[in-house]
Design brief:
217 residues, alpha+beta, three-stranded mixed sheet, 5 strands, 11% strand, elongated
Length: 217
């Protein structure tokens, strides 16, 4: 009877070690742990950079998905659908699909057992109105929790549109609260134009009332 395959496992001490960025043998573990980030001997302990989306697929970015945004008339817009430019956003599935700022759209896409065309090449191509394409990086910054969300009249309706389409509930609420404060007789005309572009009936009704009341005075 022949012996089966060997179950011998090479001990860790005999394995070839990978070169690490820190010489752990030189670390002084008596050093106060509060000094993390300061110099310990000749070793500088630094905090890791958080994950961030990028317009360039650099090796250190570790992105595992690409979103290609083209300018046209997609996602319910009114333009003729003639794309003139494209931006490639290199992102991370775990950021888009998990957490309090996650996108329900991408969460469903990544976790679904259905075979989507996008899953074959890890890429989503999305056509947006120019104002939504301009606001897309702001949406990604929010999902990645980069800096503070700085809303403006210019991007509010586009972000409202993006948050609805991609299912980012917290962003939708924050944008809705901003619009309530920002929608006045002075800004109503701009909101009317943007709401018409995105067929946003709720904002259209409110802006029409404000514009009508302003015209009567």
């Amino acid at each position: 009877m022949q012996a089966g395959p060997s179950s011998y496992t090479q001990p860790m001490s005999a394995r070839k070690k990978l070169k690490l960025s820190v010489d752990y043998e030189a670390l002084d573990f008596d050093t106060d742990l509060a000094q993390v980030g300061e110099t310990s001997g000749n070793i500088l302990l630094e905090e890791d950079e958080p994950l961030s989306w990028s317009l360039s697929d650099l090796p250190g970015n570790l992105s595992d998905w690409t979103i290609v945004v083209t300018e046209g008339g997609g996602l319910g817009g009114t333009c003729a659908g003639t794309s003139t430019s494209a931006s490639h956003y290199h992102v991370h599935k775990n950021i888009l699909a998990v957490g309090p700022r996650k996108s329900e759209y991408f969460s469903h896409l990544f976790l679904s057992t259905t075979s989507f065309v996008e899953s074959n090449n890890s890429r989503s191509t999305i056509e947006l109105e120019p104002s939504a394409a301009a606001a897309f990086p702001i949406m990604l910054d929010y999902v990645y929790n980069i800096g503070n969300l700085e809303l403006s009249t210019e991007h509010a309706i586009a972000l409202r549109h993006l948050s609805k389409y991609f299912g980012i509930h917290k962003l939708f609420v924050e944008v809705a609260n901003f619009i309530r404060r920002d929608l006045t007789a002075e800004t109503a005309t701009f909101y009317l134009k943007e709401a018409s572009l995105y067929c946003d009936d709720k904002v259209l009704r409110v802006t029409c009332r404000i514009c009508a009341a302003n015209a009567e005075t």
